[in-house]
Design brief:
By secondary structure, the protein is an alpha/beta fold. The chain has 11 helices and 13 strands. A 6-stranded mixed β-sheet has the order 5-6-7-3-8-9, sandwiched between helices. Strands 11-12-10-13 form a 4-stranded antiparallel β-sheet. The radius of gyration is 23 Å and the shape is globular. The two termini are 38 Å apart. The structure holds adenosine-5'-triphosphate.
Amino acid sequence: MPAESTPETLVYARDLEKRYGDKAAVRGIDLDIAAGEAFGFLGSNGAGKSTTMRMIGCVSIPTSGQLTVLGLDPQHDGVAIRSRLGVVPQQDTLDSMLTVHENLEIYARYFGISGKLAKRKASELLTFVKLSDRSKDKVDELSGGMKRRLAIARGLVNDPEMIILDEPTTGLDPQARHMVWERLFQLKQRGVSILLTTHYMDEAEQLCDRLVVMDNGKIIAQGSPSELITEHVTKEVVELRFNGAHTTELADLAEKLADLDGQIEALPDRILIYTNHASGTVAEVRDRGLEPSSAYERRATLEDVYLRLTGRTLAEA
Ligand SMILES: Nc1ncnc2c1ncn2[C@@H]1O[C@H](COP(=O)(O)OP(=O)(O)OP(=O)(O)O)[C@@H](O)[C@H]1O
């Protein structure tokens, strides 16, 4: 165990790298994730989030660098680490031939839990993820959100100290997402550490104590959601839209605002003004002869942080 990794350190990484042939998927990242944290990996497609999670989950061997998980070395103690982790992969890997209850019961056997104990555990977990009334149904009869909750229950079969979730709410409708979030809040309250990847800024803001923003295999920023916002953007944002105006026209309009107190960002469909004094900004815009078709003030979010750091919105990435 490296000197820097303490019993409270769940994940410790230094200069961690993963290459696939010539392609570097993860390019020398450092991580210090403490027990009890909800820790997020935020970034666009191909940023390296899943590859990092796979290394932490001991299913992918790092090409170079240092990595310890729960104080152990994944290359030598993979089995011991995995027995203490819960993993909820991005792809649905539930067994559609089995019932909801059987999925949990049979998965429990991989961890040496069988018989009455496995049945009891499956029932308890179905209560936890609010699927008790569907326990005899086949998995295919569940909605996407229910399947995701079942996958979370399955990841909890071995009472893990840490659960790893790869994009837990991608593709779910808002109500289903909230159900998943609520279960994850509950888990956190029970002291389970949570690692998750997400494309969703609101998810990261809701769930994560700390997070890293990844881009092109590197960590480009890290901190709590509020630290990231304070460090990289202003408190408030004014969003301006101009009927029918797109990239080129908006870039021209943005130039007329260059002397305003704030940073101006022209997107393909709107102009953003980052400022600490949103009130009064729209009047100043009008003073310069510009008439937005809509203007509204909001607080800055992680989406703004991502935009400032990469020059792209996550939707464009
Ligand atoms: N098994 C593999 N073989 C070759 N290249 C891979 C492999 N797995 C991932 N990559 C590449 O590594 C890079 C990082 O991929 P990764 O899946 O870690 O990104 P991600 O941030 O999780 O993206 P997403 O949000 O789409 O899941 C991508 O360019 C991807 O094509």
